[in-house]
TrEMBL record:
<protein>
    <recommendedName>
        <fullName>N-formylglutamate amidohydrolase</fullName>
    </recommendedName>
</protein>
<dbReference type="InterPro" id="IPR007709">
    <property type="entry name" value="N-FG_amidohydro"/>
</dbReference>
<dbReference type="InterPro" id="IPR011227">
    <property type="entry name" value="UCP029730"/>
</dbReference>
<dbReference type="Pfam" id="PF05013">
    <property type="entry name" value="FGase"/>
</dbReference>
């Protein structure tokens, strides 16, 4: 069942597909589109500019980082309120009924057919796109380090989050993530090691793509107030580029 009509955006966008870099960038929550069939999901305009709907700043930071690295960047075009592409689609929170105090009316009382339409139209094509890109790179003998770009709100549940950037990792080949942490810690900023989030059973993308293919990887979280504007996005793209290249040099 296809939820999307021709006037709707494609499920995902790929930039610089043939980039020569060992890095493959992804953006699970980079988009803000809504399928026309779903209206506004019962969510007011103010909430569509919040972190509950999008990883603020990630799309444009990722575009600049892809340019600086000559890396492919594949990112989701639809809001995480439509379906969260960093969740197993079988989980209830893949299509949240509420998020950080906001009820998502259009996500309440869904049938299994409703949920399946979002999975097959958006979630599955996005992850198939990533899988195909990884398979093509591996078949060509191209080194691939999977880097998931995210951003986090400075305050959550009335608690201030002091980190400028966090690097998330869990099982598998974490050597690049550890080297990236070391490179970032040499900067005059507070760096989170599995903070403000830990990579756990809620994460889908990295276990599905990096662990299953035995890839080096890292999930990178940048605080949203630092990349909400173009100047900050360019600054952090350059800062991450330098740290990523330093980390990779230590492993080669």
């Amino acid at each position: 069942m296809n939820l999307l009509v021709p006037a709707d955006p494609a499920p995902f966008t790929v930039i610089n597909a043939n980039g020569s870099s060992p890095f493959l960038l992804t953006g699970d929550h980079a988009g803000l589109a809504i399928p026309s069939a779903l209206g506004d999901l019962g969510v007011g305009p103010a909430d569509w500019s919040r972190h509950i709907a999008i990883d603020i700043g990630v799309r444009d930071m990722g575009l600049e980082l892809a340019r600086l690295l000559d890396a492919p960047f594949i990112f989701q075009n639809y809001s995480r309120l439509v379906i969260d592409c960093n969740r197993d689609p079988a989980r209830d929170d893949a299509i949240p009924a509420s998020s950080d105090g906001t009820d998502i009316g259009g996500n309440q009382g869904l049938t299994e057919i409703d949920r399946l339409a979002r999975v097959t139209s958006i979630h599955a094509p996005y992850h198939s796109g990533i899988s195909e890109m990884i398979s093509a790179r591996l078949a060509a003998g191209q080194e691939t380090i999977l880097l998931a770009l995210h951003s986090f709100t400075p305050i959550l549940d009335e608690m201030r989050r002091p980190w400028s950037v966090g690097v998330l990792h869990a099982a598998g080949r974490i050597d690049f993530a550890i080297c990236l942490l070391d490179a970032l810690r040499r900067l005059p900023i507070k760096v989170g090691d599995n903070a403000p989030y830990a990579m756990d059973e809620t994460d889908y993308s990295m276990p599905f793509h990096a662990l299953s293919n035995d890839l080096r990887y890292a999930e990178i979280e940048v605080r949203q107030d630092l990349i909400s504007q173009g100047e900050g996005q360019s600054f952090w793209a350059a800062r991450l580029r330098d740290a990523m290249e330093e980390a990779w040099q230590r492993l080669t």
